């Protein structure tokens, strides 16, 4: 872990990243890609030391209230958050200045901040987005080794549902020849049905690989799935988009099953909802949900 000073913290689309790098160790993580120009070791988390000061100023001076999002580049609830509490401090600012909140996470640490998330949701709007990739607990420990497994994340979704916090699931990535099977897709959707998830974001069955994350991914394939790297190279060469050979069949299952369950599966509609700040204070969920 190391500290840095930054010039700004709130993006034009109202996103924040209080940290750079991540300790979850997910073998497929796109944030390792060279395009993001992270100059330090990915596990040596960069903490933006002045981020809360900048966030306070940005939120206070916003002419209109917005949905503040986090988690696109680094999980806001990685292990160092237990001690530093930057995310919790950001939530206090978001609540104080009357904005909304949404985040993407894989961590059950988010339950620590349930009190603040509930207060934000009662005042404006809060939505929690949870990533689910595999229903196989042992496989989850390989794919996402330093964070709670899928069953625990499902428990988190249940708890959020009990507190009337709307949730969205990211069903991705689906790794060819690893978790691209019918049982996995069916089970994850069943989890979403059981926990009253409002929407599932899925960009197709597959993953993306580019310089930086490709090399790390292949290294982990060699460690955990002998010979599979050669299969990837043969099938996909140096492509960016790595689709499952079963994508059509799995997407049919996804679309049919989510539609039958009344779960929104249109990513554009879900993103629209996530960015939509309620027009009136205490307005409940939009027509989409």
Structure description:
It holds the Pfam family Radical_SAM. This is Radical SAM protein. It comes from Methanobrevibacter millerae. One of its GO terms (molecular function) is metal ion binding. Keywords: Iron, Iron-sulfur, Metal-binding. With 289 residues, the protein is of the alpha/beta class. Helix content is 39%, strand content 14%. It has 11 helices and 11 strands. The strands form 3 sheets. It has a 6-stranded parallel beta sheet with strand order 2-5-6-7-8-9, sandwiched between helices. The protein has a 3-stranded mixed beta sheet with strand order 1-4-3, with no helix packed on it. Helix 3 runs parallel beside helix 4. The longest helix is centred in the C-terminal third of the chain and has 15 residues.
How would you briefly describe this protein structure?
With 289 residues, the chain is an alpha/beta fold.
Please specify the SSE layout and strand pairing.
Elements: E1 2-4, E2 15-16, E3 19-20, E4 46-48, H1 51-61, E5 67-70, H2 81-84, H3 86-96, E6 100-105, H4 114-123, E7 126-132, H5 137-143, H6 150-162, E8 167-171, H7 182-194, E9 199-201, E10 206-208, H8 213-224, H9 228-236, E11 241-243, H10 247-261, H11 267-275
Parallel strand pairs: 1-4, 2-5, 5-6, 6-7, 7-8, 8-9
Antiparallel strand pairs: 3-4, 10-11
